[in-house]
Design brief:
The complex is a heterodimer of chains A (720) and B (124). By secondary structure, chain A is an alpha+beta fold. Chain A contains 21 helices and 27 strands.
Chain lengths: 720, 124
């Protein structure tokens, strides 16, 4: 048969030998039977040993496919017919039906004249196939993974310029999340510049750098072109052209914005804390540890958390601060306290501290947050003020100065304590006001005083005035006031401040002085008058000048003695006994010549003057004519008794002398004094009689009860 | 003083100083006046007037026992001219009596006389 012939032919040629020697498993197969007929089959023309080995069959040359591989006949027939019909070779990969091996079968049509055949080349690709299968599965899983993650992922190919600078990139792959994170769609195969022509240079530059360096980078960057912030992890894929980059990224715009906002507000807060002139601190829940967290270093370099109360609060205030803190902790309320402090370098000062509790989730105080303000300066001013106020108060009390402040706008008035007293009020008895003040001003002085105040208010000049006030007790006091109005920027009077002193005493003293001067003048003039009168009255009784002068001088000396007695003890009455004895002593009367006796009697200066002069006259007379000039003696006695409600003194001068010298008939100076002046000036009686045994003189007069103002001040001053 | 310018003049003297009173009386009488009263205390004016007219008065202010100012006011009410003779200064006089002639002590006799002559409406 022809087919057998052909087989023979093929196997016996040189080509046949080569075919049989091929490393690859191969066969040549030709169709038999009618195409499409029931006997259609494929007969092996040649099967080389490699194939026999591969398929683990013997030499099946001459046998048909249906005979040998009935199970695979249909499948393979379709392939073979197709190749035969198309006259184009095909590669078919197919798992062997009897094992898990996978073969790659290349079917190549052959033609010799009108005889047609097909060469098969079979290769066991089980290993390759498995590997690629695995790779495909991995790829699929990988794809699934990246499609399922929230982050964006893409693979890029970086495009460089001539200088090795990345200038653009093409998207090779992108996961599903990519679109969400970038806002871009259908990017595969497209360049970034197609979407964002204004894409910042740094993007391709960065990817280029990563690609060339082979070092992955992580960065967070804003793209103004895209309008988003990205958090990117980019890594190189492969190390040669074309340079691919994998990029895993997220759109972090929202977070970034929040961060920025937060940072700004934090910055603002921090700036505030740093800029504040207060000290910002936190304190632990029980208030024992504190640390400065910002603000001004009011306490100097305070170091880390410590017990500030121990460290910076002086002992004097420690208990108070501790107590305030404990109380705030107990009440769970903000604390507030002013206390002394000592800075780290020892300077002293005052702080005003406030702290608010910060509550934890359990509702308990977690810590305290607070601030301290340096109030040293204001404290100092307050202290100075209070010191000044105290000084002013003490000074005004000691100086008896009454102070007032009048708020012209509201009518409110403030008086110092002394002011109340000056107006005749008990301290705090009434609410001070203009009306209460006016109530006490003496009615005669009120209009003038108000006019002065009105004038001072209008002119801005100081108010200086002295006026009387009437106390409810009837007391009239003089007040000397000085005040000043204060004005606002519009020139409206707003306040009046003033001070005043009680000048009643000063005025009384001045009045006294004036009266004393007047009285002195009066007395001096009277004295001169009297001297003149005495001189004149002395004249007629003397025949020669020497005699006259002696007498006159004696009288003037007696008057002078009275004056000096009065001057030595001004304002005091004169003891009669003392007066009499002194006068006798002046006239050198011996003790055995004079007997003096009488009760204690105090004479007014006026009476003393007259009695002195009278004793002088009697003594002079006695020396010249009577007892003192001889061996006689004198009894000077007096009594005092009440007569018609007045105390009268009765003084008797009685001489006992053996021989009286010539008796004078004329009424001399001494006699006139006793008989006329005593009644006239002392409103009493006087008698002067000369008996044989001597002179008997008697003076009786009431003791005065209203002496001159110069002689006693108890009466008080009087204006004429 | 020998002119008797006060002839027929009825004058009272209120003066607590005996010597001054004495001097004044002497001087006025020398001038022809009739001194109808010399007193160291304030007299009862009505009673005095009942005894006859008073042409002028010379009064001291401080009478030791008191002041004569009220008496001076009564004199003025009665239209009796008067002068003060006093050791005090005229400035010490109260307002309402400031216009009263005031002669200071020690008394200048001529001045006392001239003043009273004027008061009594006599020509010197």
């Amino acid at each position: 048969m022809r087919m057998g012939d052909n087989q023979q032919d093929f196997g016996q040629g040189l080509f046949g030998a080569a075919f049989m020697a091929l490393q690859d498993a191969a066969s040549i197969i030709e169709p038999v039977g009618q195409l499409g007929g029931p006997d259609r089959d494929w007969r092996y023309l040649a099967v080389n040993p490699a194939l026999q080995e591969l398929l683990d069959v013997g030499d099946v040359t001459g046998q048909t496919l249906r005979q040998h591989f009935p199970d695979n006949f249909v499948k393979w027939t379709a392939d073979l017919e197709r190749v035969l019909a198309s006259n184009a070779s095909e590669v078919i990969i197919r798992q062997r039906s009897t094992s898990s091996r996978i073969f790659e079968v290349t079917l190549t049509p052959l033609a010799m004249g009108d005889r047609k055949a097909i060469m098969t080349q079979t290769r066991d690709i089980t290993r390759e196939h498995t590997a690629s299968q695995k790779r495909r599965e991995a790829d699929a899983r990988y794809k699934l993974l990246f499609d399922s993650i929230d982050q964006g992922f893409c693979i890029l190919e970086v495009l460089f310029d001539g200088n090795g600078q990345g200038v653009d990139y093409v998207f090779l792959e992108a996961n599903r999340a990519f679109d969400k994170h970038t806002g871009l769609h259908d990017v595969i195969g497209k360049r970034i510049s197609e979407f964002h022509p204004d894409i910042e240079n740094h993007w391709p530059a960065t990817y280029g750098r990563i690609a060339l360096s082979g070092v992955s980078e992580r960065f967070e960057r804003q793209s103004m072109a895209v309008g988003r912030w990205f958090d990117v992890f980019a890594f190189p894929i492969g190390d040669q052209a074309p340079y691919h980059i994998g990029a895993l990224f997220s759109d972090v715009s929202a977070r970034k914005e929040m961060e920025l906002t937060l940072r700004h507000s934090k910055n603002r807060l921090q700036s505030l804390i740093e800029a504040t002139s207060d000290l910002i601190f936190r304190m632990n829940a029980d208030g024992t540890q504190m640390e400065q967290v910002g603000g001004k270093r009011l306490l100097g370099n305070v170091g880390e958390a410590s017990n500030w109360i121990e460290k910076f609060v002086p002992e004097i205030d420690r208990a108070k601060v501790r107590q305030t803190v404990d109380e705030a902790i107990r009440l769970r309320e903000p604390l507030e306290i002013e206390h002394r402090m000592r800075t780290a370098d020892g300077a002293a000062g005052w702080l005003y501290s406030r702290a608010v509790p910060v509550f934890g989730e359990d509702g308990e105080i977690a810590e305290w947050f607070g601030m301290s303000t340096d109030i040293t300066a204001s404290r100092r001013i307050e202290q100075q003020l209070s010191h000044g106020t105290q000084m002013l108060r003490v000074a005004s009390e000691i100086g008896k100065v009454g102070l007032w402040e009048w708020n012209v706008e509201t009518g409110e008035m403030t008086w110092s304590e002394e002011h109340y007293r000056m107006e005749g009020y008990a301290v705090g008895e009434i609410i001070p006001s203009y009306e209460r003040w006016a109530d006490r001003v003496h009615p005669d002085d009120l209009s003038a005083t108000e006019a002065k105040i009105t004038k001072a208010m209008a002119s801005g000049e100081d108010y200086v005035h002295e006026y009387r006030v009437s106390h409810p007790t009837g007391d009239i006091r003089w007040l000397s006031a000085r005040g000043r109005f204060l004005y606002d920027e519009h020139g409206q009077p707003v306040r009046m401040l003033g001070a005043m002193v009680d000048t009643t005493e000063r005025r009384r003293e001045e009045e006294w002085q004036r009266l004393l001067v007047a009285e002195l003048q009066h007395r001096v003039r009277n004295l001169i008058s009297m001297v003149r009168s005495v001189a004149r009255l002395s004249a007629p009784s003397h025949r020669n000048v020497d005699d006259y002068v002696d007498h006159l001088i004696g009288r003037l000396q007696a008057m002078g003695r009275t004056q000096s007695t009065l001057t030595r003890s001004p304002g005091r009455d004169v003891d009669l006994s003392e007066l009499v004895r002194a006068e006798l002593l002046v006239h050198a009367a011996r003790d055995d010549q004079a007997f003096v006796e009488g009760p204690i009697v105090a004479l007014s200066p006026h009476a003393a003057e007259i009695v002195t002069l009278a004793i002088h006259e009697l003594a002079t007379n006695s020396i010249k004519y009577g007892a003192l000039g001889d061996t006689g003696y004198i009894r000077i006695t007096w009594t005092s008794e009440d007569k018609a409600g007045k105390n009268w003194v009765s003084l008797k001068w009685q001489e006992t002398s053996p021989a009286r010298k010539t008796k004078q008939g004329r009424k001399g100076f001494g006699r006139k004094l006793i008989e006329e002046r005593v009644p006239y000036e002392l409103h009493g009686t006087g008698s002067f009689k000369v008996h044989d045994t001597g002179v008997l003189a008697q003076l009786e007069f009431p003791l005065a009860d209203a002496p001159s103002i110069l002689e006693t001040r108890s009466v008080g001053p009087q204006r004429l | 003083m020998t002119d008797k310018t006060l002839s027929g003049c009825r004058i009272i003297i209120v003066e607590d100083d005996y010597y001054q009173a004495h001097d004044s009386k002497q001087m006025l009488e020398d001038a022809g006046a009739a001194v109808i009263l010399v007193s160291s205390v304030v007299p009862d004016l009505a009673e005095l007037q009942s005894q006859g007219r008073i042409d002028a008065a010379l009064i001291d202010i401080n009478l030791g026992q008191g002041l004569s100012l009220d008496f001076a006011r009564r004199l003025r009410e009665q239209a009796i001219p008067f002068a003060f003779l006093t050791g005090y200064d005229a400035s010490m006089l109260p307002e309402d009596l400031k216009d009263i002639p005031c002669i200071g002590k020690p008394a200048d006799g001529a001045r006392v006389l001239a003043t009273l002559t004027l008061l009594a409406g006599r020509q010197i």
